[in-house]
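protien #1 (seq + structre)
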Amino acid sequence: MAVLEFDEYRQCDATQLAQWVANGVVSPRELLETAIARAEAVQPTINAITQKHFDLARTAIDQGLPTGPFTGVPFLLKDVSVQMAGTSTSNSSKLYAGVIAQQDSTLVSRYRQAGLVIFGKTNTPEMGLAASTETALNGTTRNPWDLSRTPGGSSGGAAAAVAAGIVPAAQGSDGGGSIRIPASCCGLFGFKPTRARTPLGPFVGEGWGSMASVHVLTRSVRDSAALLDATQGLSPGDPYAAPPVARPYVEEMTTPPGRLRVALQLAPLSGSPVDAACITAARDAARLLESLGHEVEQALPPGNAEELSTAAWALVAVGVAATLHRRARILGRELREDDVEPVTWQAVRHAATLSAIQLENARLAIHLQGRRMATFHERYDIVLSPTLGQVPVALGPQSMSNPDLDAYSAALKRFTPFTSLFNMTGQPSMSVPLHWTPDELPVGVMFSAAFGNDDLLFRLARQLEQARPWFDHVPSV
């Protein structure tokens, strides 16, 4: 079976590849085999893929693909939470060995309807719980820009796969920054939609007390916009819905954003120190915005860092513990410490200390923060900040098998002090690859808008992409 030359394949985003298929320039099978060849070439180096569904993808093509906006484009799922019929989702946990899904998640059904060819799953820390992708079950994923450093997490395998050129877009999820963190680490565009913009059903109604969202990591803005068009919207039984969409995001991004009022946030609410390179990236982005006609002033969003951190950890810990206890009951026994990695067990233990009242107070705290931010956005259209507190860090300290839990926690808080605020409030937020260090480490810049204003972010993202193109800035792995 013929394959494209890799350089030719990598020069295209998913939208362009779909256009080639529609015009008969290439076949879906040629694209799939090109993606598989690239995956096999770089997998030993970066370890991005946990499951290979190559033959399933070939069969799907042979049986005929739906006609959609991405017909024939190779695609990867994250190996946590979402289900694809006939395959397992490991959640990077030995507890889920051999569990085969009987039906697709709603999101996966929508990916299939869009014509995407799903041929594998990407690595994630156990239960998607960490900001680095280092797992006892599936091994360590390495950053294509520097193999000694993390690609971020929890969608680290997805980010590494896109950065290395296996696919132009891959599915991720974001409960505390897990799309934006790896996007920043790997030089990609990572968009977290408004709460409930994309469906989590039919197996769950919400994740981590409403903080989790699902979308993709991409190299182009238009791919992210078009994939959100293909997947967004209420599905039967959803507990709530995001504000309705006025028109497709691929149309929104062609509209100039107008003159925006931008709050430049250089310090996290926690007061944690921020690397000079991350500050430089944010300041440079602020100057770029001013050159595009926007109004920028330094400002700090409202909120009590300790209160919010306590609330977020309660919701995450209870969500993870409840999921694991359900799985253990299916196995006919109690959950044991040796079933999971040390960091995961810490979450389980913490959940056991919380009362129902404390859990409800955590929910109240994040929803109060949403109201605070709504007031803040009466003055500012956009919050601009570094995505991370550090450039991509070395592998090791944020491994979920790190026995020094205090060191793990300190490393996590230092690395990711900005992103989780917008999970708590449910606001749309994106990491944009606007900066690289002199030694070629990507440094993302984060832009966040008021609840429901995904359209505004796409307008701004497209403007930034045109002003400071990044598509051809790729690693050489």
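ok now protien #2
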Amino acid sequence: MMNAIQASEQLIELIHRNEDIANYADGCDAETMAAAEDALGIPFPPSYRYLIEEFGTWDIAGEEFLGVYTTPAMGSTLLGSVAETLDARNQYGMPPNLIVVMFDGMGGLVALDSSHVDQQGEYPVVVWNPGVMHSEDAERLGEAFGPFAYAQCQRAVTSWRETE
């Protein structure tokens, strides 16, 4: 069984092997990463950090991950996970230990729960629904981001390729 960083490495390879159905940014430098973690008040877990460093933000075969990035139009405003997490905290009272990484397509937010850190520094992946005040009530989707994201993307690519 691969660990969370190995799963992130596999995901990077998967994206590069499927460039025709993938999009990604230029990655995230150390200064931007530090600003993102400072804005959220939470460090990113290693497997999520690894992917943000590589891609910034990405999607493949319809699976979109928020990541961390800026755009010329928005200047130094941190978009993706940072903007969506801060928005969910302000608008919906999302607990401060959660970091939004994607949308579940049904109104929920897929998030990393920093209140439960494993020995490798990874956080479980959960679905948090607006209005739920306690992160303990969120459905757990995975034990760490890397394996969760790799599995999601692998399924999406397989499904996409089968319908071509």
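The first helix runs from residue 4 to 17.
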